[in-house]
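Hello,

Our lab assistant flagged a job as stuck in the queue for most of the afternoon. It eventually completed. Since we weren't sure the result was trustworthy after the delay, we are filing this so someone can double-check. Below is the sequence as submitted and the structure that was eventually returned. Let us know if re-running is recommended.
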Amino acid sequence: MTHRTLFIITGMSGAGKTQVIRALEDLGFYCVERLPLELFPKFLELIEGAGGELGPVLALGMDLREVKLDERFPALYDTLRKSSLTVRIVFVEARDDVLLRRFSETRRPHPLVPKGSAEEGIALERARLALIKEKSDVDVLGAFLPTPRCDAQAVNRAAAELGDAGIVMGHVAMFDGYGQPGCWQDAAVLVGIERLIMETYDDPAWVHALLGILQKRKAGYIESLRGARYDLLILGGGDASRSTSYSDVSSSSGAHPPCGSSCGR
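-- returned structure --
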């Protein structure tokens, strides 16, 4: 029998669950999004009995659009833990202001309160998902999301076209849409600054592991910056941080070399 790991992808509506599933699909993993809970026993039977054609890693997307998922999840998770699968939970998160902006931009109602406000839906969803959220599996993001790479040739083409008419600016790689360039800032956005500070005292090993995951992802991107002709590179952001600028990444000491892929005047 092929040993398999099943990742349950869940989290806040609008936070990027679909993007996580697509990233796993791009890595060649078998993924199912929004499987009705009534079909879950059959799904589990099929993947436990399947041969090597499904591969060693699978992902299942779940959210509160499934009726009473929060109430039924403990029993479902207990069933999974008793199976032959290794089960990991990936909780995809974003700040309330980011979620509100995304619902405003798409003009979609929140799925939990289609006739109410997005603020009401976000608050309700956070409360109902509290039982499912598992901080111990945050390293799944670091292990299975691809490390972004700088396209130095594209940066250099932009620099050549711009000439002296402006500057080419970049930033440290982060999670799209809601991250921050610095490791601590990125972590503060992902889990909340108050929680991050408290966890530093209550569970420093977890905080250390989280920062290490973010640092490794950023370091891989920094390595890809060699030769990119940036004029202004920024480390810092809005969460628990201050901005710092560097003028020459090629001669930077490497302690906190900035990176990014955006260009601007």
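-- support follow-up --
The delay was a queue issue, not a problem with the job. The result is valid. The longest strand covers residues 5-11. Confidence is low (pLDDT under 50) at residues 241-265.
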